[in-house]
Design goal:
heterodimer; A: alpha/beta; Arc Repressor Mutant, subunit A; 2 domains; four-stranded mixed beta sheet; B: mainly alpha; 8 helices; globular
C-alpha cells in the first residue's frame, strides 16, 4: 500500500515541466526509430504565425493562421500519416530561411520540398512558380502558358489557391492581368505585404 | 479486424481545408478558423494531440504502478510503443483505454527490470492467459468500441481499475469521487460491458480477488 502512495505528493504544477521534457524525449526517440512521419513547428513572421510541416523528404506544408493550424494538422494526419509530432529541430533550416526572407536578405529558398499534397496540373503549375523572379509578378494567363496549357487560366488560379507551400513556392507573385493582387491563401493583405516586401528589397 | 483497419486509410474529403480565404477584406489575420470546420473528423488525430490529451493521465497511472523513479521511463516506452501501432488503431477507438493498457504492460516490463517497488504489480498476472489476453488487448478493437459506449465515469473507472490496475482508492482520486463510488462505477461499467463485450467476465473475476485483499 505504501508504494501506491508515493505518487500522491508529486502531482502539481511541475507536472507540466515533466511532461514537456517527456514530450521532447518522445520526439527524439520517435525520430531515432523512424516513427516520425510528419514533424512540425510554428514560426512567428510579419504575416503572423506560420505552421511548417515536413516529412523525411522535405517541407510538405506551410500554413497561415487563417487556415487554422489544427485543421491543417488534421488534414495531414488523414492524407499523410497520423504519426505527427511537434519537433522544432527537423525544421531549423526552413525556419532560418524564412527569417532571412522576411528580413529581405533572401530572394530564393533552398530547401528540399515534398510536393505530395499536389498532383497533376496543379503540381505542374507549382513547379513553374519559382521561375517568376523575386520582386516581379506574372499574370494567371502567363503562368498557364509557362505550365504548358495556355487555356487553363482558371486552373492556375485553383492551383495557386491550393498551394500547400505558400511563401516558399511563390504563388503570391501571380496576380490578375489588370495588376490587382487577386486572392490568396493567407488573405489579400498578406499577399500585398509579400509583394511590397519583395519590391522594397 | 482487417476490414476495420482499412477504414483508417480512407481519406476524409475535406475540401474546405485547402481553399483560398477570398472574402475577408482587411482584418484577415484576425479571424482564426475561417476555413472549413474541423467538426466531423472520421480519422485519427495527429499523435501530438494524443500526447497532449492523455499524457498526464498516463503519467499518473505510471507513477502509481511503478513509482516516481521509473514512471518517466514507463511513460516514454508507452508513448513510443503507441506511436508505432497508432496508424492501425480504429478511428473510433477509446484512445485513453488503449494507452492505459499499453502503459500497464510497459510498467510490468519496467518493474521486472528494476524490481524496486513490488507493491501493486505483484498482483498482476505474469503472462496473459486465454481468459484474460492482455497483450492481445492492446489491439482489441471490440473492447475499445464497447468502452466508448459507457458513461464517462464508468468508462474511466473500468479503464483505471481493470486495465491500468489502479486500486480503487487511486481511481477515486483520479475521478474526484469516493472509493465506494469508484468501485460502484466500475461494477456498473463491467455489468454493461457484459452485454456488449464477451470477455468482460474474466477481468472481474480476477479483480474481485485482488480488491478483497486491498480492504482493511
Amino acid at each position: 500500500m505504501n508504494g501506491t502512495l508515493i505518487a500522491d505528493n508529486t502531482r502539481g504544477t511541475d507536472d507540466a515541466d515533466v511532461l514537456a521534457g517527456l514530450r521532447a524525449r518522445l520526439a527524439r526517440s520517435a525520430r531515432q526509430e523512424n516513427l516520425l512521419d510528419v514533424a512540425y513547428r510554428t514560426v512567428d513572421t510579419p504575416l503572423g504565425s506560420l505552421l511548417l510541416a515536413a516529412t523525411e523528404k522535405g517541407l510538405v506544408r506551410v500554413a497561415f493562421a487563417l487556415e487554422d493550424h489544427d485543421a491543417v494538422l488534421n488534414v495531414l494526419a488523414t492524407r499523410i500519416s497520423p504519426r505527427i509530432l511537434q519537433v522544432p529541430g527537423r525544421l531549423d533550416a526552413a525556419a532560418r530561411e524564412l527569417d532571412e526572407y522576411f528580413a529581405g536578405r533572401r530572394t530564393a529558398f533552398d530547401l528540399p520540398l515534398d510536393f505530395r499534397l499536389a498532383a497533376g496540373f496543379r503540381l505542374e503549375v507549382l513547379q513553374h512558380l519559382p521561375e517568376i523572379a523575386y520582386g516581379t509578378t506574372a499574370s494567371y494567363a502567363m503562368v498557364a502558358r509557362l505550365a504548358g496549357n495556355p487555356g487553363a487560366v482558371r486552373a492556375v488560379g485553383t492551383a495557386c489557391g491550393r498551394n500547400p507551400l505558400p511563401v516558399v513556392v511563390p504563388c503570391h507573385r501571380v496576380v490578375r492581368s489588370d495588376g490587382s493582387p487577386g486572392g490568396y491563401l493567407g488573405g489579400p493583405a498578406a499577399k500585398e505585404k509579400l509583394l511590397r516586401l519583395e519590391s522594397a528589397a | 479486424m482487417a476490414a476495420q483497419r482499412h477504414a483508417v486509410l480512407v481519406p476524409a474529403s475535406r475540401p474546405g481545408a485547402a481553399r483560398t480565404g477570398k472574402g475577408a477584406p482587411t482584418a484577415a489575420e484576425a479571424t482564426p478558423a475561417a476555413v472549413g470546420g474541423t467538426a466531423k473528423a472520421p480519422a485519427l488525430l495527429p499523435f501530438e494531440r494524443v500526447v497532449e490529451l492523455h499524457g498526464s493521465v498516463v503519467l499518473r497511472v505510471c507513477r502509481v504502478l511503478v513509482g516516481q523513479q521509473d514512471a518517466e521511463d514507463a511513460w516514454s516506452e508507452t508513448f513510443l510503443a503507441a506511436l508505432r501501432t497508432y496508424p492501425d488503431l480504429a478511428p473510433d477507438a477509446n484512445v485513453e483505454a488503449w494507452l492505459v493498457t499499453i502503459a500497464r504492460n510497459k510498467c510490468i516490463d519496467v518493474h521486472r527490470r528494476s524490481a524496486r517497488l513490488p507493491i501493486p504489480l505483484a498482483e498482476l498476472p505474469e503472462r496473459p492467459s486465454l481468459s484474460e489476453p492482455h497483450t492481445l488487448l492492446e489491439r482489441d478493437e471490440d473492447l475499445w468500441a464497447a468502452l466508448q459506449n459507457l458513461p464517462d465515469k464508468q468508462r474511466r473507472a473500468v479503464v483505471y481499475h481493470h486495465l491500468a490496475g489502479l486500486p480503487y482508492a487511486q481511481v477515486a482520486e483520479v475521478l474526484g469521487n469516493s472509493e465506494a463510488a469508484a468501485r460502484r462505477a466500475a461494477a456498473d461499467g463491467i455489468r454493461s460491458l457484459r452485454g456488449t463485450y464477451p470477455f468482460a467476465v474474466s477481468p472481474v473475476d480476477r479483480r474481485t480477488k485482488n480488491t478483497a485483499g486491498e480492504q482493511p
